[in-house]
UniProtKB/TrEMBL annotation:
Transmembrane segments: 12-32
Keyword Transmembrane helix part of the UniProt annotation: yes
Domain of life where this protein originates: Bacteria
UniProt-recorded name of the protein: Preprotein translocase subunit YajC
Keyword Transmembrane helix: yes
Source organism phylogeny: Bacteria, Pseudomonadati, Pseudomonadota, Gammaproteobacteria, Moraxellales
Keywords attached to this entry: Membrane, Transmembrane, Transmembrane helix
Length: 43
């Protein structure tokens, strides 16, 4: 049953993608805010 395995792999990739997005979105946001604060302090 290669079709079932393909669907399973597709679901796994989607799960990992969604997890990475939800995990890295706030991380990138805070990093961006930190960079902005550093830029303001330098001026």
């Amino acid at each position: 049953m290669p079709h079932m395995t393909h669907n399973y792999m597709l679901g796994l990739v989607a799960l990992i993608l969604s997890f990475a997005v939800t995990f890295y979105a706030p991380l990138a946001y805070f990093w961006f805010k930190f960079r902005q604060q550093q830029r303001k302090q330098n001026k």
